[in-house]
């Protein structure tokens, strides 16, 4: 039964990717988060909100493609070590927004080695997703940009893998627009499909370079339901609800949330 469910999930993601995935030569896990239905029967607009992994290998053809998509704002959640190692390539006239809160040491090999030696199973990812302390500095400016962005332009947000920091951002945006938690989780878990080949290479690299167990490497590279659920659970515990969190930490008052939905729903 579990195998059948997995086959159905992958089949659904393959079908969805035909309209959602933006195929580029130099980036992966690049997709439109439009089209999702809200609880009120509206849909997130296509061509306005994109999520991705890092952009350091974009080709000239890729950059032209992003221009054709009207991507004018690029929010980057990576920290200084990551940015130095793999600086963004962005389209002409696009604005890059640096949002490194909580990622100050990410990408530092010494820090990573110590971190990997200290975690067991998926404990490191659960701890990461449960730490909401940097969320205000990381995500509130993103919502502010969404509220003030030109209506004719699109916004892209990304980190290194397009999985964790980006996955949380997508979840918060979709929830703020009225998408249900099941659909939000499905979008998050789809990363396992979009990164399937890259993840295998990354797992081998982590095992060889840092001498960790393959199971730990797989935990680190996977998008799993209990990871994002840890974020939801922590927010609900601290703020009472996701709605309260959005209002009090992200600054989405009733009027601002209505404006956000007016801009990005149809």
- Which CATH class? Alpha Beta
Q: CATH superfamily, please?
A: Protein tyrosine phosphatase superfamily
Distance between the termini: 37 Å
Say how many strands there are.
5
**Regions with little confidence, pLDDT below 50 for 5+ residues:** 2-8
Radius of gyration: 18 Å
Q: Which structural class matches the secondary elements?
A: alpha/beta
Q: Just name the CATH architecture.
A: Alpha-Beta Complex
Q: Helicity, in percent?
A: 55-70%
Task: Enter the CATH topology name.
Answer: Protein-Tyrosine Phosphatase, Chain A
Number of domains: 1
The proportion of strand residues reads: 5-15%
What kind of sheet is the major sheet?
5 strands, mixed
* Topology as a string of helices (H) and strands (E): HEEHEHEHHHEHHHHHHHH
Main sheet strand line-up = 1-2-5-3-4
Q: Name the assembly state.
A: single chain
Would you write up a description of this structure?
This protein has one domain: Protein tyrosine phosphatase superfamily (Protein-Tyrosine Phosphatase, Chain A). It has a five-stranded mixed β-sheet. The chain starts with a helix and ends with a helix. The protein is α/β, with parallel strands linked by helices and 266 residues long. The model is unreliable at 2-8 (pLDDT under 50). It has 14 helices and five strands. The chain is globular.
